[in-house]
């Protein structure tokens, strides 16, 4: 018996990297306990990629291949594309009609993101981007998700969703939605090649769907102890990106590596070579799984087609309840917009 319902998703904006792996492994565990809906959030991607929408289509297949590669099971979860369930747009519209503008403007991530893109020479001050939290609320509520895996930066959006639920119930005197609660998994922070958070926007990422040659080149670029000039100099592992990766992926030997580094018994080059071998060994089963999946060029689209069908069944049921609560059902008409 599953514990409840979870909705989570990712935007198809580029190749997934090692920083996403712990999230996907968490999803893999959750799908054993919850009714899980995993969504390719392509409409969310368009809020910032509206000037090049085709990129979201190109990346959708790659995104889902990565999901399946690490073990998401379409038989144990519902994997679908947001835009293929039109009820997302309908519920988003209806919720936007009751959402005060001030609620959207106070979301802390809005101004931060606007400033971030402005520094890149882009203007995203659009109606769609401002309404991002409302669309996110619609995504969650359409499947009556009662648990949502989020990072701490997304907590304001989830509280926004609960406020919308309370306002809907207050206005229409009928409880349709649960108030979704946050699930804050303890996920390790994977640094980028330069020690900052791993991110495509920083160009410091290691793609999940890479190869031994790419891993070798990426590890070679990693920042090490800047004060260590010679291989025999005592190192400072705590400021070394290579050591941070060893802590995540070389746990059985990480203490020995730390001691050897501090004593000057292992240089940065051999330490990087050890990490390269470890990462390749760790990722090889995923790469082999991906190659198997790629043998059938239609498999991903078949998974998304079936997932979309299941998602629409639930979405249509929810929208019938929403229209009934609002009293906007048109006699003699069926279906959604």
TrEMBL record:
<protein>
    <recommendedName>
        <fullName>Tryptophan--tRNA ligase</fullName>
        <ecNumber>6.1.1.2</ecNumber>
    </recommendedName>
</protein>
<dbReference type="GO" id="GO:0005524">
    <property type="term" value="F:ATP binding"/>
</dbReference>
<dbReference type="InterPro" id="IPR002306">
    <property type="entry name" value="Trp-tRNA-ligase"/>
</dbReference>
<keyword id="KW-0067">ATP-binding</keyword>
<keyword id="KW-0547">Nucleotide-binding</keyword>
<dbReference type="InterPro" id="IPR001412">
    <property type="entry name" value="aa-tRNA-synth_I_CS"/>
</dbReference>
<keyword id="KW-0648">Protein biosynthesis</keyword>
<dbReference type="InterPro" id="IPR014729">
    <property type="entry name" value="Rossmann-like_a/b/a_fold"/>
</dbReference>
<dbReference type="InterPro" id="IPR050203">
    <property type="entry name" value="Trp-tRNA_synthetase"/>
</dbReference>
<dbReference type="Pfam" id="PF00579">
    <property type="entry name" value="tRNA-synt_1b"/>
</dbReference>
<dbReference type="GO" id="GO:0006436">
    <property type="term" value="P:tryptophanyl-tRNA aminoacylation"/>
</dbReference>
<comment type="similarity">
    <text>Belongs to the class-I aminoacyl-tRNA synthetase family.</text>
</comment>
<dbReference type="InterPro" id="IPR002305">
    <property type="entry name" value="aa-tRNA-synth_Ic"/>
</dbReference>
<keyword id="KW-0436">Ligase</keyword>
<keyword id="KW-0030">Aminoacyl-tRNA synthetase</keyword>
<dbReference type="GO" id="GO:0005829">
    <property type="term" value="C:cytosol"/>
</dbReference>
<dbReference type="GO" id="GO:0004830">
    <property type="term" value="F:tryptophan-tRNA ligase activity"/>
</dbReference>
